[in-house]
Design goal:
The complex is a heterodimer of chains A (289) and B (373). Helix content of chain A is 39%, strand content 21%. Chain A is of the alpha/beta class and 289 residues long. Chain A folds into 2 domains: 193 residues, Rossmann fold, CATH 3.40.50.300; 78 residues, no CATH class. In chain A, the strands form 2 sheets. In chain A, strands 6-7-8-3-9-10 form a 6-stranded mixed beta sheet, with helices on both faces. Chain A has a 4-stranded antiparallel beta sheet with strand order 2-1-4-5, covered by helices on one side. In chain A, strand 1 and strand 2 form a beta hairpin. In chain A, helix 3 runs parallel beside helix 6 and helix 10 packs across helix 12. The longest helix of chain A has 18 residues. Chain A is globular and about 60 Å long. In chain A, 45% of the residues are buried. Chain B contains 17 helices and 6 strands. In chain B, strands 1-4 form a two-stranded antiparallel sheet. Chains A and B meet through helix 2, helix 3, helix 4 and helix 5 of A and helix 1, helix 9, helix 10, helix 11 and helix 12 of B.
C-alpha cells in the first residue's frame, strides 16, 4: 500500500488498536512479517509465541520505538505510524518493559509522579518559579491516589530499585497507568514471578482494566496467566501470525501446538495428549507457510 | 498525613539548611567589613562563587540530565565577552579598542542587563549548536561540545572581528566586583560589598537551578538521565527536554562567564581554555555528580586549595635551615593532581554523592538511599 493513504482502522468503532500488514525488517531478518491485528475496547488481548517470534518487536513498532518497514498502526482511528514514542504515549498508549526499566534514582512516588509530566500545562518557567502550584498539587494527589489503588502507597518513599522484583513489576504498571492511557501494553509482566504472584497479577490486570476503563494488550509466556485472563490470543512464530482466537481455540490449534511443543513446558502440559503426535506431523506443513 | 505528600513538605531540615546559608552570607558580610579587602579569603570567595555557579550549571547538564557536555568554557567566554563589550564605558573605548578605532559598539549598558544578555547569548548559541550536537550520545557529544568551545575561542581572537571583540587583545576597564562597594563622598569605601554581591548573584542563580531541578521538569530530566527509553515511553519528549537543560545550563554558564570577567577585571579569549572546562568538571566530580550542594562546596575548596592553601608549594621553604626539596614553581599543580587522583580513586561518589544539604540532617536511612554509583 502507498504511504499516503491512511485509512482509519477497520471501520469498527470499538476498535482501539488496529495493526495493518505490519512488517519490521532488520537487514535480512524479518522480525515481524505482515502482521494484522485488531484490539477492541475493553478487551484483554495476548500476543504469544516462542522466544524470538517477534512479539517485543511488534510492541516496539506499535509504541514508536521502531518505525515499521511497511504497514501501519492506528489508535482509535488515528494513524500513529512513524510517530515518536512520546507522542504515542500522549495519544493514550502506555507500556511496560520486558526487562524492568524504572527510574532508578527516584522513589516509588517520584517514579509515578514523573509519568504525569506529559499531562502538564505548565512550561519550564512557570514550573521553575512555582506558578503551577495548583497543577503540581493535583499531580501529587492523583499520584497518591493511584499508589493507593495499586497497593504501593506504603512503599512510596522507598527507592524504586530497592523494591522486591514483583513490586517493581507492579510499579512499572502503576507508572504506565499514571500517563492516563486508553490502551495498556504489558511486555511479559509476569516474567520472573512465582505461580502465586502470577495468579495475583492476573487478578490485578483484570481489576485495573475495569477500574481505569482500559484495553490491555500483553505479551506473556506464563500460559496459565494468558489462558486465564485473555479474551483473545494472537499467536505468532517467526514474525508471522499462525493463529488467532479464544484461549480454548488457540489451545487446540495444531499449528500452535507445533510451534510450542517441546519448547514450553506449561504449554506442553496443557496440550491434549493425543494432539501431540498430530502436531509433530503438522510441523512441516506450518513452517514453510 | 494526607498533606505530607500532596503539599511539598517544608521540613525542619530544609529550614535548617536555609538558616545555615543565611548565616554564611551574614558572616561574609561582617568579615568583609572587618578584614582587609586584599585578604586571600575574599579572592577565594569571589572566584569560588563564580566557579560554583558554573559548576552547578554543568551539573544540571551532566549530573541531572545525563548530557555529557564539555562546552562550558565556550559558553563562559560568550557571557564574559558580551558583558565586557556592553559595559565598557564609551569614554574608555578609544583606549581599549586602540587598534580598531574605538570599536563598533558605542553605547554602555548597566551591568545586570549586560550580564543577563551574556547569559542569553550563551543560551542562544547553545540552542543553535544543540540542534546538531544533542543528537549525539555520551563521548561523541563531549567531543563535539569541546570542539565548539575551541572554535568559539579561535573565532573571538580573529582579527576581522576586532571592532567588536578587540581581536586577541584584552578587554578591560569595565565595571568589576569592586564597583559594588559603596563609596562615600570622598571616594572612601563606606560599605564593602565586593564579595557579598557576587555570592548573592551566584546564590540567586543556583537557587533558580535548584527550583528547576525540583519542579516537574527537573523530574523529567532525571528520568531521562536514569533511562532514556523509559522516559520517552512515559511521554517525555527527549529532544526538547535535553535542549531545555542544555540551554539553561549554558545560560547560567554565560552568567558565570560575566562574573568571571568581573572577577578578573579583564577578558581575553585565550584564557577560556579546555583546561578551564576540566577544572569545572573536576569540581563537579569531586562534589558529587548530581548534587548541587556538592558542586558548591567543592568549588570553594578547589579554588581555596589552588589559589591559597597550596600556594606555599610554589616557593622555596626553609624549615630550620633545611631547604625542603622539590618545592619550586609548578610543584603545587603536581600535589594538586595527586589529591585529585586520591579523590577519584577512593571517593568516587564525591563529597556529597547525590545528596543535598537538607539530606544531611534527615538521618541516615534516607541519606544511604541517595548514594548511587
Amino acid at each position: 500500500m502507498s504511504a499516503e493513504i491512511k485509512r482509519p482502522a477497520n471501520g469498527n468503532a470499538e476498535c482501539v488498536l488496529h495493526i495493518d500488514h505490519l512488517t519490521m525488517r532488520f537487514g535480512g531478518v524479518v522480525a515481524v512479517d505482515d502482521l494484522t491485528m485488531d484490539i477492541n475496547r475493553g478487551e484483554i488481548v495476548a500476543l504469544i509465541g516462542p522466544n524470538g517470534a517477534g512479539k517485543t518487536t511488534a510492541f516496539n513498532a506499535v509504541t514508536g520505538v521502531y518505525t515499521p518497514t511497511s504497514g501501519w498502526v492506528s489508535l482509535n482511528g488515528q494513524d500513529i505510524t512513524g510517530k515518536r514514542p512520546d507522542e504515542i504515549t500522549k495519544l493514550g498508549i502506555a507500556r511496560t518493559f520486558q526487562n524492568i526499566r524504572l527510574f532508578s534514582s527516584m522513589t516509588v512516588f517520584d517514579n509515578v509522579l514523573t509519568a504525569r509530566h506529559l499531562r502538564r500545562t505548565s512550561n519550564f518557567l512557570t514550573a521553575t518559579f512555582r506558578l503551577n502550584l495548583a497543577e503540581e498539587k493535583k499531580m501529587r494527589q492523583e499520584t497518591e491516589q493511584l499508589l493507593r489503588e495499586v497497593g504501593l502507597f506504603e512503599l512510596r518513599n522507598e527507592k524504586a530499585t530497592s523494591l522486591p522484583y514483583g513490586k517493581q513489576r507492579l510499579l512499572e504498571i502503576a507508572r504506565a497507568l499514571s500517563t492516563q492511557p486508553k490502551l495498556l501494553l504489558l511486555d511479559e509482566p509476569a516474567a520472573g514471578m512465582n505461580p502465586q504472584e502470577t495468579e495475583e497479577l492476573g487478578e490485578f490486570i483484570k481489576q485495573i482494566k475495569e477500574k481505569f476503563d482500559l484495553t490491555v494488550f500483553l505479551i506473556e509466556h506464563h500460559m496459565n496467566l494468558v489462558m486465564g485472563i485473555s479474551d483473545r490470543i494472537y499467536v505468532i512464530d517467526f514474525g508471522k501470525q499462525i493463529a488467532m482466537g479464544t484461549p480454548a481455540e488457540v489451545q487446540e490449534n495444531p499449528a500452535v501446538i507445533a510451534a510450542y511443543l517441546g519448547v514450553d513446558e506449561d504449554e506442553a502440559a496443557e496440550a491434549p495428549a493425543d494432539a501431540r503426535p498430530e502436531a509433530r506431523d503438522g510441523n512441516e506443513e506450518v513452517s514453510p507457510e | 498525613m494526607n498533606n505530607q505528600l500532596t503539599k511539598k513538605k517544608i521540613d525542619s531540615a530544609t529550614i535548617l539548611s536555609a538558616v545555615i546559608v543565611v548565616c554564611l552570607y551574614v558572616a561574609v558580610f561582617i568579615a568583609e567589613q572587618l578584614i582587609a579587602p586584599t585578604s586571600m579569603l575574599f579572592t577565594v570567595l569571589k572566584k569560588g562563587a563564580t566557579y560554583a555557579l558554573v559548576a552547578v550549571s554543568m551539573n544540571l547538564c551532566n549530573g541531572f540530565t545525563g548530557i555529557f557536555s564539555l562546552g562550558q568554557a565556550g559558553f563562559m567566554l560568550l557571557g564574559a565577552y558580551t558583558y565586557g563589550i556592553l559595559t565598557l564605558p564609551v569614554a574608555e573605548r578609544v583606549n581599549v579598542y586602540q587598534y580598531y578605532g574605538g570599536g563598533l559598539v558605542q553605547f554602555t549598558l548597566p551591568w545586570f542587563v549586560a550580564m543577563l544578555l551574556g547569559g542569553l547569548v550563551a543560551a542562544l548559541f547553545a540552542f543553535l549548536i544543540g540542534l546538531p550536537v544533542l543528537r549525539l550520545k555520551s563521548d561523541y557529544l563531549a567531543i563535539a561540545t569541546l570542539g565548539f568551545a575551541e572554535i568559539i575561542r579561535a573565532i573571538f581572537q580573529w582579527d576581522k572581528l576586532g571592532p567588536i571583540t578587540n581581536g586577541s587583545n584584552m578587554l578591560r576597564l569595565f565595571p568589576n566586583f569592586n564597583d559594588f562597594n559603596i563609596r562615600g563622598a570622598d571616594g572612601q569605601v563606606t560599605v564593602y560589598l565586593s564579595t557579598l554581591v557576587p555570592l548573592l548573584i551566584a546564590g540567586a542563580c543556583i537557587g533558580i537551578i535548584v527550583m528547576l531541578i525540583n519542579s516537574t521538569f527537573g523530574r523529567a530530566l532525571k528520568a531521562i538521565r536514569d533511562d532514556e527509553i523509559a522516559a520517552e515511553a512515559m511521554g517525555i519528549r527527549l529532544a526538547s527536554h535535553k535542549r531545555l537543560a542544555f540551554c539553561i545550563s549554558s545560560f547560567f554558564a554565560g552568567i558565570g562567564g560575566a562574573m568571571l570577567a568581573m572577577y578578573q577585571s579583564t577578558v581575553q579569549a585565550k584564557g577560556f581554555t579546555t583546561a578551564m572546562t576540566y577544572e569545572i568538571l573536576l569540581i563537579v566530580v569531586i562534589g558529587g555528580i548530581g548534587s548541587v550542594t556538592g558542586s558548591c562546596i567543592s568549588s570553594f575548596l578547589f579554588v581555596a586549595a589552588s589559589e591559597w592553601w597550596l600556594r606555599f608549594l610554589d616557593q622555596k621553604q626553609m624549615i630550620g635551615g633545611f631547604e625542603v626539596p622539590l618545592l619550586r614553581n609548578g610543584f603545587r599543580l603536581v600535589v594538586f593532581s595527586i589529591i585529585i587522583m586520591i579523590v577519584v580513586l577512593f571517593f568516587r561518589q564525591g563529597i556529597m554523592g547525590t545528596r543535598e544539604l537538607p539530606d544531611l540532617f534527615r538521618g541516615r536511612r534516607k541519606a544511604k538511599g541517595g548514594a548511587k554509583s
